[in-house]
Design brief:
This protein has 15 helices and no strands. It is mainly alpha-helical. The chain has one domain: Formate dehydrogenase/DMSO reductase fold, CATH 1.20.1630. The longest helix has 35 residues. It is globular and about 60 Å long.
Length: 318
Amino acid sequence: MPFAPAAALGGWLCAFVLASGILLGGLLFLALTWVIPGRWQACVEAEARLLAGLTPWLPVLAIPLLAGLSRLYPWSSGDTLTGFKAVYLSPVFFSLRLVAILVFAALLSLRMALKPGRAVAVAGSIGFVLLDSLLATDLIQSLDPNFHSSGFGLYILALQMLTAFAAMLLLGLRQPSDGDVSLTGALFLTLLLCWPYFFFMQYFILWSGNLPPGAAWFARRGVGLWGVAETLLAALRLLPAFLLLFTPIRSSRNWLRGIAAVTLLASLVEIGWLILPEIHGPAWLGFGCFLMAAAGGALAAPLARRLFAWGRTERMRA
């Protein structure tokens, strides 16, 4: 079978959305530790700092997407859109927005590392949420330029925060106390319950409004293997939330790590479900490329963890 560049780029787009979700989610968690006081800060600060420190790599990872824009997005030819959409979804404007948003995130992470402060964190959090919504619209929603959902950006933000939190739990840069474990479990449950709200909200709005483009978008993801993935996704999200309702599970380090691993698996399925139905080419090739890129990131995680621990030790000695 001939190689399908669009499918391979679709796999890279999935991997980029997963990686950027984890790193940007960590950056937002780091900013929020300066905004919201409380004991919860100790549960996430070290891991969030590690993830945020990797954010400057995102513009580099976006280069293949910019190079393959015409193969990923049907509007890149400029022949299918008119009016504001034709301007907003032009290749030049799209590329400038993508680079500007990723550079903003990189600069915010550097400022938070070198000279953090409450004012920087508040302003950065507000700017982050606004720009992250644009990023979600550009990278994912614009794959179908006829589809529009006003809640899509918040839904992707909830996905990013949940995925980043699960990644931070698996990183485990410090040994938490029993009280911190229970608090971490409560935070995890909150994020897991936020996800179905934002996921269902956009579906309900589109259904109640009887909007054909939205119905077609969901219909493509409800048939064949994508329908199976949709059912699997619901199970992988709702079952962990149900388990965390029980205090012994919510207070167990091993249970939390296991649920975090299941949550990352669910994010893998969800991102493929969001993106690959819109990509031209065999879905198995796109998902295979996605899995290979995700596996590479998973192998790099222990190295990043060791480098962070070494850097922190050197700073303490100095």
